[in-house]
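Final report, closing paragraph on structural work. Over the funding period we assembled a curated collection of sequence-structure pairs, and we close with a single example.
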Amino acid sequence: MPSSKYSKADQAAIRQAAATQIALAWDIPGLVAGVDEAGRGPLAGPVVAAAVILDDLNPIKGLADSKILTALRREKLFDEIRAKALCFAIAEASVEEIERLNILQATLLAMRRAVEGLRLTPKKVLVDGNRLPVLDMLAEAIVKGDATVPAISAASILAKVHRDRWCAEYDQQFPQYGFAQHKGYGTAAHLAALAEHGACPQHRKTFRPVTEVLR
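Its predicted structure, as stored:
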């Protein structure tokens, strides 16, 4: 095969220049939104997503992955985020949408709704995980972003608290399942309640433990 018309040094310089151009194109100025979800794994209830644009001039201390925070700390940060963020939005995909689309697509739908619900339009969206919803702006998926990116941490807290409150409210309608305690996850107590009482309207009938009970 004929050799390249560029030397190895030239090829390295070209690659470096291309990488620099990509970085410059990506790192555009403007508002950045963080996005995360809560409720992919439970056997019941909607999946919830939140989008947050933080205010750099009004920082919030203690932002972290919602899963490592106590319930009391999440509640306090929930109120602080809502008060100090430039804007935020919380959205859901229903049980019916989860069953029709599958949980992944329903999660991405909830994320898209959250971004579209923002009062301000971000230039860039940072999403926790490795999959992106369909958006009209630049977006990047960041694995474990809820632990490393403050805006994603804030979104994870909003989504988690919103869904936990949904579970507490729904527990009042169907106290036999214990939603306020297990938040819809497939704990031993939840599975025992399913076996005894069957499924309620908010159970995800395409999830195996619920499907097996219905059989």
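Strands lie at 32-38, 47-53, 87-93, 124-128, 138-142. Residues 1-6, 17-26 have pLDDT under 50 and may be disordered. We thank the funder for supporting this effort.
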